[in-house]
Structure formats: structure tokens, C-alpha cells
Automatic annotation (TrEMBL):
Signal peptide range in chain numbering: none
Protein name per its UniProtKB record: Beta-glucosidase
Annotated source species: Micromonospora krabiensis
PROSITE patterns: GLYCOSYL_HYDROL_F1_2
Gene3D superfamilies referenced in this protein's UniProt entry, alphabetically: Glycosidases
Family the UniProt entry places it in: Belongs to the glycosyl hydrolase 1 family.
């Protein structure tokens, strides 16, 4: 039996997260246009199991049942993403009213159940027409993103409780444009810097647009990974510095007014006068997505990168073969606190979760003790960071539902709720019941 969960501050936000393309399905419904993920998933050989997000979890048609699951879990907040091509099929021009109506209904349903809507404006599903015009390599996409943000906030700004502009711009840049393993499938390596700058510029311009439409707080959700240098040579340490600049600082230093880290700007002409000031527009919350630390050492002689990534030993592994390292979350939160000081806004953990090969047992129930252990350890890491003085305001589990996991298709299950993709039946796992009880105990406060 594990020790009782330590108490969290009053008002600490308990939530779960999802993203549009991974759960909504209905890719041809009500005027939605194609996204880069529709194109990528339908390209042979791109997705491990050959599947697509055409149906996914059919959340578009089943959102009321999914909101009921949220209500039963007892969360304070639900982080979802708005599908840009559902709202603005070509990425520019007028809004698609039928598409925006869906999010209007979802937000109202959440509020009726006492759940704060947390809306992410971009979770990687760029409208395909914008990609055809250059995607995030083109500066114009930043301006299109700001215009889209304005359209969404004009409709939902009075009810969404927290706005998140971008989700994991580093992952989108590195896997989508750098290594080609995510949509749109480009392999540019360090020539992908324009994607970083234009996403950040789009974020800054979107913040300005949101401020005219809503008084709710505004955030960005970055993926972070504490760097573990394996080796004790100067070359190993230099590799760690290079990886930290790329993964953790490239999308944080400019946001907090420090400009780009040394060595990351491959084409200074892309950074126009006023860009850095726009990017550094104050945000109210820094979203932290954490899954695992990263092992780094000096690169091999023939490597095109200034570092090599190496596995970390000594940790349990998820079905993704990621190390389960709650100490990494504690380490990361401390690093942010020390590195950015008073410039660091309050933090919310906007994603934290794990994939395991969950399946119903003979009793029809889905037992996932490894996920319970994962969540228990990571929540204790957050509590330890709070004790160290880090201002952490909330924790969102990834994910509510098993879903379509990008290039891994349906082969990885992150959900608190099991989804039978053939029947769309939802079965809450034992981790769902565990988290429900943790949240209820947190609301009751310490025993007297």
C-alpha cells in the first residue's frame, strides 16, 4: 500500500488533457478542411499500424458522454484543443460556423458540469492549404495564426477559463520539420529554425489578439526534458549544453524576454525588428509538459547533430520505452525556478502521463497499476517542488482517453479510460478510480 498522498494547496487545479486530431474523428463533418495530419496519416508507411485519425475516438459525436466521464472523475478543468481546419478550413478567411459551433457546445457542456474549459489553439493540426504555402517555414503563417486566434476568442472568450496558444512547439518543429517522423514530414534538421521563430511569433501575435477578446489568463504549453549528461569529458558537457539550449531554452528564453540562446539562430535575417518584443508579451501561466529526462553525450564523428541521445538505465520503462522518472519532474521544476527567477510565471503541469498495453481482463475491468504508480510518483514530485518554493498551480493528466497516438497510430494507450476502437466503448480503468479518489481527498483537505 502506498503512503497517503500529501496535501496540495487550496485552489490547485486538477485536470486532464486531450487534443483534437487524436480524439475527434469526423474529419469530413460540417465543413472541416484537411490538416497536415490527414495528409500524413493517409501517406503509406508514415504511421506504424497504417491507421488514421479519421474516426479516432469519435469524440465529435460522443462529446457529451466524454464530458460525463470528466464529471465522474471530478476534475476542475479539461484541456482540449481546437482544430484549426474545423474552424477555418483553409487557414484564412471567414470562420466555419458549424465547426466553431461544436466547441461552443463543448464549452457550455463543460461549464454546466462545473468544469473549467482550457482551450489549446494549436496542437499540430495545421490546415493543409497553409502547409502548401510554406507552413511554419513561412512568416505569414504566424499572422494567419493570430487571425485564427482572434476568431476563436471572439466566440469563446467569455467562457474559456485558460487559453493556451501552442502545444509543444519544440516537438512540432523537431519531429515534424526537423526529422520528418511527424506531419508534415519534412527533414530539415537545423534548417528548421524558421519553424521555431514563426511559431513563437505566432504565439506573441495571438497573445495580443486574445487580450482584446478575453480577460482569462493566457499560456503556452512547452515540452521539457531535463538533460542527463552521460560522460565526463568537455565534449560530453558541451553536448548537454547544446541539447538543453535546443529542447528547453529555445522556446523559453525568448518568451521570458531573454532572446534566443546562443547558437540557435541559424538565419538572423528571419528575426525582424519588433519580433522579440512581440514574442515576449507577458503570459500568465507557463504550461509544462513532462514525460521523461533525456540522456546525452558527445556525438559520434559522423553525426549531423552536436549531441547523441542515449538511453537512461535504472528506470522502469513505459510501452513507449520511455523511462519512468518522477525525479526528473522535480529536477525540471527546480531548474525552471532557478533559471528564470522572477521572470517565471506560475506553472501548470499541462501534460503528464504514460503509455501501457492496457486491456480488459476476464472480469471486464481494466487494471493499470503501473499508471497509478506513475501518477503517484509524479504528483509527489510536484509536491516536493512546491515545498522547494516553485509556484505550481495545477496538474493535467495525459490523457482522458486512449487515443490515436500520432505516428504510433492506435498502438500506444495513454488514457485513464480504455477505448475499444471498433465499438467505441469506454471503460474507466483502475487509474481513473484512483485519481478520482485523490481529487476528492484533496478537496476534503487534511484529516482532523
Amino acid at each position: 500500500m502506498t503512503a497517503p498522498m500529501p496535501q496540495f494547496p487550496a485552489g490547485f487545479r486538477w485536470g486532464v488533457s486531450t487534443s483534437a486530431y487524436q480524439i475527434e474523428g469526423a474529419v469530413d463533418a460540417d465543413g472541416r478542411g484537411p490538416s497536415i495530419w490527414d495528409t500524413f496519416a493517409h501517406s503509406p508507411g508514415r504511421v506504424v499500424d497504417g491507421s488514421t485519425g479519421d474516426v479516432a475516438c469519435d469524440h465529435y459525436h460522443r462529446h457529451r458522454a466524454d464530458v460525463a466521464l470528466l464529471s465522474g472523475l471530478g476534475v476542475d478543468a479539461y484541456r482540449f484543443s481546437v482544430a484549426w481546419p474545423r474552424v477555418q478550413p483553409s487557414g484564412s478567411g471567414p470562420v466555419n460556423a458549424a465547426g466553431l459551433d461544436f466547441y461552443d457546445r463543448l464549452v457550455d457542456d463543460l461549464l454546466a458540469h462545473g468544469i473549467d474549459p482550457v482551450a489549446t489553439l494549436y496542437h499540430w493540426d495545421l490546415p493543409q492549404p497553409l502547409e502548401d504555402s510554406g507552413g511554419w517555414l513561412a512568416r505569414d503563417t504566424a499572422h494567419r495564426f493570430a487571425a485564427y486566434a482572434d476568431l476563436v476568442a471572439a466566440r469563446l472568450g467569455d467562457r474559456v477559463r485558460l487559453w493556451i496558444t501552442l502545444n509543444e512547439p519544440f516537438i512540432h518543429m523537431s519531429l515534424g520539420y526537423g526529422m520528418g517522423v511527424h506531419a508534415p514530414g519534412r527533414m530539415l534538421l537545423f534548417d528548421a529554425f524558421p519553424v521555431a521563430h514563426h511559431q513563437l511569433l505566432g504565439h506573441g501575435l495571438a497573445v495580443a489578439a486574445l487580450r482584446t477578446r478575453t480577460t482569462s489568463p493566457v499560456a503556452v504549453a512547452n515540452n521539457y526534458s531535463p538533460v542527463r549528461v552521460l560522460g565526463d569529458t568537455d565534449a560530453d558537457r558541451a553536448a548537454g549544453v547544446a541539447y538543453e539550449a535546443l529542447h528547453n531554452r529555445l522556446f523559453t528564453d525568448p518568451l521570458l524576454g531573454r532572446g534566443y540562446p546562443d547558437g540557435t539562430v541559424t538565419d538572423p535575417s528571419l528575426v525582424h525588428d519588433g519580433d522579440l518584443a512581440a514574442i515576449a508579451a507577458p503570459i500568465d501561466v507557463l504550461g509544462v509538459n513532462y514525460y521523461n529526462p533525456t540522456g546525452v553525450r558527445a556525438p559520434a564523428d559522423d553525426s549531423p547533430l552536436p549531441f547523441d541521445l542515449v538511453p537512461l538505465d535504472g528506470y522502469p520503462r513505459t510501452a513507449f520505452d520511455w523511462p519512468v522518472a518522477p525525479d526528473g519532474l522535480h529536477e525540471l521544476l527546480g531548474w525552471l525556478h532557478r533559471s528564470y527567477g522572477d521572470a517565471l510565471p506560475p506553472i501548470e503541469i499541462t501534460e503528464s502521463g504514460c503509455a501501457y498495453d492496457d486491456a480488459p481482463g476476464p472480469d471486464g475491468r481494466v487494471h493499470d497499476p503501473d499508471r497509478i504508480a506513475y501518477l503517484d510518483g509524479h504528483l509527489r514530485a510536484v509536491r516536493a517542488a512546491l515545498d522547494d518554493g516553485v509556484d505550481v498551480r495545477g496538474y493535467f493528466v495525459w490523457s482522458l482517453l486512449d487515443n490515436w497516438e500520432w505516428a504510433e497510430g492506435f498502438t500506444k494507450r495513454f488514457g485513464l479510460v480504455h477505448v475499444d476502437y471498433a465499438s467505441q466503448a469506454r471503460t474507466p480503468k483502475s487509474s481513473y478510480a484512483w485519481l478520482r479518489d485523490v481529487i476528492a481527498a484533496a478537496r476534503r483537505g487534511p484529516a482532523r
